[in-house]
Predict the structure of ABC transporter ATP-binding protein.
Amino acid sequence: PPVLELRDAAKHYPARRNLIGLRHGPGTTAVAGASLTVRPGEFVGIVGESGSGKSTLARLVMGLEAPTAGRILVDGADVTVGDAAARSVRLGALQMVFQDPQSALNPRRSVWRLVTQAMEAARARLGTGTRAGPARPSRAGRRERAATLLAETGLPADLLDRFPAELSGGQKQRVNIARALCLAPRLLVADEIVSGLDVSVQAQILNLLHTLRDELGIGLLLISHDLGVVRYVCSRVVVMRHGEIVEEGPVEAVFRDP
Ligand code: ADP
Ligand code: ADP
């Protein structure tokens, strides 16, 4: 089955209540009936101007918010209702990488502990509802696993004991990606992950995503306002406008249109 499928997924935010508790106005339809399929290892870009619903779509995919209509399937399982079963399906398949690598990283934790922390958090979430989770690895074991994940993202071992403030923007984003790799995801959902970086560093990070696909089969749902970034890394692109998917197809076909 596809790793991700949206069937007419929609998200409507009601208008806010005024002082006497009445809602005024129709609210906002952030995503309006979006249908989308992502196959394993596929790289799909989502473009659209600010406010077109890209980030809301990502939050729906990740289960950070529930859709107001439609269905969401992950690995063929319906995860529309975000219950414990849906969370564990998502946890085994999807990870998100955020825009700002600085704010996502605790400045007081060293690089290897930042990765370990993500592993522990994932372990804790997986253990939810069960009495005996997997046994906690030793400190040396955790450090070694963190080093392996960091090596997969191209970070040299001598950065293991550094702190975020001592890393470049690209290195910080690599740490974030290493954290996302903890649970061996099959699809990374990336929201503007290279927009703050120098162009040459952007290319390094995008090449890393290609390497992860080639070596680990990890797919990508890449939200970006930068058409050049999407063209460089994605084979398929989805164009959003006012919450709707208005165009979808191979990158060359969609970007050829005037
Ligand atoms: P308040 O705290 O007074 O309710 P918010 O800061 O939550 O105000 O929201 C301010 C406005 O921004 C509202 O119109 C709300 O619909 C909108 N809004 C809230 N969250 C977001 C968001 N994540 N992205 C875009 N707009 C948002
Ligand atoms: P994009 O990521 O493409 O910039 P968003 O998904 O952030 O678009 O926003 C789509 C629309 O939904 C915008 O009109 C935005 O103001 C609104 N919106 C987003 N989040 C909220 C929220 N939590 N509450 C109310 N409105 C929101």
User: Anything to note?
Assistant: The beta strands are 4-13, 28-38, 43-47, 69-74, 77-78, 94-97, 187-191, 219-223, 236-241, 244-250. The longest strand covers residues 28-38.
